[in-house]
Amino acid sequence: MTTDNSKDLLPMIIEGIQERKGKKITVVDLSSIESAAASRFVICEGTSTQHVAAVADSIRECIFDKSHIKPYNYDGYGNSQWIVIDYDDTLVHIFVPEMRRLYDLEGLWSDASITDVPDLD
Predict the structure, then answer these.
(1) CA gap 21, 54 in Å, rounded
(2) What is the pLDDT of residue 3?
(3) pTM tops 0.85, yes or no
(4) Res 26: pLDDT
(5) What is the rounded CA–CA span in Å between residue 59 and residue 86?
(6) 29 by DSSP, 3-state: which?
(7) What is the pLDDT of residue 117?
(8) Mean pLDDT for back-to-back runs of 10 residues, the chain (121 residues)
(9) pLDDT at 8
């Protein structure tokens, strides 16, 4: 299912990540894969659990401030090693580096179109 504002969310998600210096942003386009849980994953990482939580907060604040859209759900703040934010057709995953390597979502969905967003330095 695609929401009317799905195309508009991606720039806001990336802005929210970059505002808190989230790194290694990857956009996984799953729209052509019927069995996928969403049309798109946005994956990034923080350097620590506190950084992961700050990046997740920044994404939620950025989208709400600019479009008044709240996520359908989010999870992972308990230990903040992996936080997922659900925006219907877009799932945002924020990892600490070792959890990102462990779950390897890019490898799991390697048949999707994958785009890396350069880090701001």
Answers:
(1) 10
(2) 43
(3) yes
(4) 98
(5) 11
(6) strand
(7) 96
(8) 58 97 97 91 98 98 96 96 96 98 95 94 77
(9) 79
Q: For residue 73, what is the enclosing H or E element?
A: strand 73-75
The type of residue at 9 is L
Give the residue among 117, 112, 96 at the shortest CA–CA distance from 37: 112
Check residue 121 and give its pLDDT: 77
C-beta of residue 56 within 8 angstroms of C-beta of residue 74? yes
Residue 80 and residue 52 in contact, taking contact as beta carbons nearer than 8 Å: yes
The HSE-up count of residue 112 (CA atoms within 13 Å, CB side) is 25
- Across the beta sheet with 82-87, what order do the strands follow? 73-75, 82-87, 90-95, 40-45, 23-29, 113-117
Specify whether the backbone of 21 is left (phi greater than 0), alpha (psi in -120 to 50) or beta: left
What tokens does 75 get? 């999870």
C-alpha span between 42 and 119 (Å, rounded) = 14
Taking each helix axis from N to C terminus, what angle separates 49-67 and 6-19, rounded to the nearest 10 degrees? 140
Q: What are the CA-CA distances from residue 113 to residues 46, 62, 107, 119 (Å)?
A: 23, 26, 12, 19
